[in-house]
Amino acid sequence: MMEPRRTRVVDVSRNSSSEDVELEVLIGKEEIRKRVKELAEEISRDYEGCERPLMVGILNGAFIFMADLVREMKIPVEIEFMRVKSYSGSDTTGKVEVLMDVNNIRGRKVVVVEDIIDTGITLSCIVRRIREKGAESVRVCALLDKPSRRVVDVKADYVGFTIPDYFVVGYGLDYNGRYRELPEIYRIRS
Ligand code: 5GP
Ligand code: MG
User: Fold this and answer.
1) Residues 131-156: pLDDT tens digits?
2) What is the per-residue pLDDT for 148?
3) Which of 5, 96, 140, 178 is the most exposed place for a label (fewest CB within 10 A)?
4) 118 lines ligand 1 (CB under 6 A)
5) What domains, with CATH codes, occur in the chain?
6) Which atom of ligand 1 lies at the shortest distance from residue 120's CA?
7) Segment 176-188, tens digit of pLDDT
């Protein structure tokens, strides 16, 4: 379980605004780099000798993770993206609106690449949809996992870091559209 070790308020001197929140480093650059490499190696081993896996990144949050992950892969892969909008609320059956879909996945071995699993609602919908479209197999690689928040029973096959119930930003993850570009993963201090 990752716990924050050092406090660093992100440099907001450029374009700072009253909306800035205080951020604390949870996972540093080097730690992310090492873990992403390990995940890529593990996935590469599992799919070695198979037909090229189709890596499906979930936008927007997974864009940086996906880019780093595929560059560490030891086997050839194909890359697609999906964009979904999840509705938060009490409906635990889960409803997501598909804003950008993935096609031609019949018979493919799919690896869904997701930034973070929280309640699990988004991911369970995505996995169901990919199965319905006739994928031969579906596995999930999530950079971050917050198991304490789970509402729907889904598990990732590959997890980068298990974290407590923090709201995190950076390395692709946003808070109201901000902070995706930060190279480390931060928790928002509340
Ligand atoms: P779930 O459907 O599992 O509850 O939510 C998954 C989605 O919610 C993620 O793909 C992500 O976009 C968003 N999300 C959940 N937790 C966090 C978080 O701590 N930080 C950010 N930036 N997004 C989160
Ligand atoms: Mg997301």
Assistant:
1) 999 999 999 999 999 999 999 999 99
2) 94
3) 5
4) yes
5) 29-185 (3.40.50.2020)
6) 3
7) 999 999 999 999 9
* Beta-carbon count within 10 A of 94 CB: 20
DSSP 8-state symbol, 6: -
Task: Return the best residue to mutate from 171, 173, 182, 188 for the ligand 1 pocket (most ligand atoms within 8 A of CB).
Answer: 173
Give Cα 104 to chain centroid, integer Å: 22
Query: Which tokens belong to 150?
Result: 């789970």
Cα distance between residue 6 and residue 179, in whole Å: 19
